[in-house]
Design goal:
Elements: E1 5-9, E2 28-29, H1 34-37, H2 42-55, E3 61-66, H3 69-80, E4 84-90, H4 109-120, H5 126-133, H6 139-148, H7 155-158, E5 169-175, H8 183-193, E6 197-201, H9 207-210, H10 212-225
Parallel strand pairs: 1-2, 1-3, 3-4, 4-5, 5-6
């Protein structure tokens, strides 16, 4: 059986460019349309992913979700059905089924985050982006992360997680120097996902920018593991 195609989903505010340095052979990197980011549901995000997969003529896929991209990966896997071979979470946030992104962090953090987003929108202040999302990156790359950051639909953070079909393989890549999603919390998410494949990198929240080679190896390792299934 051939190796499935990695479909690379960005985290909140980011685009396909974050995957360029990882240079994953045969991968399809996704950009979410502005129309979806303006107010779409998680299912709207997933539908956009499937349209891009179909347009590329891709059949069997592994959905690689960075951070909140893991939530989109779940929904896209449901739409793709048997074409979805696996989901690999990269520093991914995994709420309980039916619960939204904010709920994954527990009370009172979920309440505080929800209120902030409701009144201030989904673009954090620059200082927070630099200390959290862009931690560990060189100055030039961190600047690009901040300058290109695009607000997302509030529904991306509120809509409930779509459960995965039991046949879908699951993997988790932990970032062990991550101030955005602490490693101990990532361990909870990996367990909740039911990850049979696990890897880790000593990076912040954007391993594909800080350690592109390690990220590529982890993604390809998960994809190749599926050939025996």
């Amino acid at each position: 059986m051939s190796t499935p195609t990695p479909v690379l989903l960005p985290g909140s505010g980011l685009g396909s460019w974050i995957w360029e340095e990882a240079d994953i052979p045969g991968a399809l990197a996704i950009d979410h349309p502005d129309s979806v980011r303006a107010g779409g549901s998680v299912d709207d995000y997933a539908a956009g992913v499937v349209r891009q997969v179909d347009a590329a003529g891709v059949d069997r896929v592994v959905l690689v979700g960075h951070s909140i991209g893991t939530v989109v990966a779940h929904a896209a896997a449901a739409r793709l059905g048997p074409r979805a071979d696996g989901v690999l979470a990269v520093a991914g946030v995994v709420p309980k089924p039916g619960k939204g992104f904010f709920a994954a962090f527990g009370f009172p953090q979920s309440l505080i985050a929800g209120l902030i987003v409701r009144f201030a929108g989904t673009r954090p202040p620059e200082s927070m982006l630099r200390k959290g999302l862009a931690a560990g990156l060189d100055q030039e790359t961190a600047d690009r992360v901040v300058e290109s950051f695009t607000p997302e639909s509030q529904r991306l953070f509120r809509d409930g997680l779509v459960p995965l079909d039991p046949a879908v393989r699951r993997g988790y890549l932990t970032t062990t120097a991550d101030p955005e999603v602490p490693p101990k919390l990532q361990a909870v998410f990996a367990d909740r996902l039911g990850a049979s494949y696990q890897a880790e990198l000593a990076t912040g929240h954007l391993p594909m920018l800080q350690d592109p080679t390690g990220t590529r190896d982890a993604v390809l390792g998960f994809c190749r593991e599926g050939r025996a299934h």
